[in-house]
């Protein structure tokens, strides 16, 4: 009786139902993240209806397999690259990656930079693909399947700028991360900057993810004019701009148009 009561409290499926309890509990944890991409241990446990000890053990296991990550600064948990790669393989993201790959490779080789393809998903900017030139420096700050704070980096800020007002408010809710002294954490300042991004159609993020690195991002639009992804490049700051003006904007915009024209 006590065991059945505990199972009900923890949200576990009865063993006689044929499910494997550990797997069921792990799935319950993963299902908590679409609505809340960043959560504390207590929040995950409450949402999954599990005790903290069980939740902690399962999170550690999921982290070991790459399905969950933990932010070292905030100690909050989020989805890892393993689950995002699986999800990408089952969605339309796979198609845009296939279309974008030649342009990502061309940009990386031509400019000796690292190129990125990213989308806006679950209140975050997710990297779908990354290419780098073997002769240049590879920017490792954004792995495939990984997320960056939306107030830092070229692509994250650009993607958020093109969301609706309600989505922008929701994404900026709570404390914002300051990765470097150049990271903007004032919400009013960010909103004003988003309007500037929409007006000019690009974003140049200088030193706000890591000092010495700069990223340039432009939107990829489909035939209906909807922003569906971001195309960006990153490299050493002196390589990327001159007096605050991007050096490779024409290359990036041409590549983004080439990708967008092939989308359905």
Number of domains: 2
Q: If strands are numbered along the chain, what order do they take across the biggest sheet?
A: 5-4-3-8-7-6
Task: Report the major sheet.
Answer: 6 strands, antiparallel
Order of helices and strands: HHHHEEHHEEEHHHEEEHEEH
Hey, roughly how much beta strand do the residues contain? 15-25%
Helix fraction by DSSP (H/I, runs of at least 4): 40-55%
Mean pLDDT: 86
In short:
The protein is α+β, with helices and mostly antiparallel strands and 264 residues long.
Characterization of this structure:
With 264 residues, this protein is of the alpha+beta class. It folds into two domains: 2-79, Winged helix-like DNA-binding domain superfamily/Winged helix DNA-binding domain (Arc Repressor Mutant, subunit A); 85-260, GAF domain (Beta-Lactamase, 2-Layer Sandwich). Helices cover 43% and strands 20% of the residues. It has eleven helices and ten strands. The chain has helices at residues 2-10, 21-30, 41-48, 52-64, 81-89, 93-111, 154-161, 165-171, 187-200, 237-240, 249-260, and strands at 68-70, 77-79, 114-121, 124-132, 147-148, 203-206, 213-221, 227-236, 241-242, 245-246. A six-stranded antiparallel sheet has the order 5-4-3-8-7-6, with helices on both faces. A two-stranded antiparallel sheet has the order 1-2. Strands 9-10 form a two-stranded antiparallel ribbon. β9 and β10 form a beta hairpin. α2 (21-30) crosses α4 and α6 runs antiparallel to α11. The protein is globular, with a radius of gyration of 20 Å.
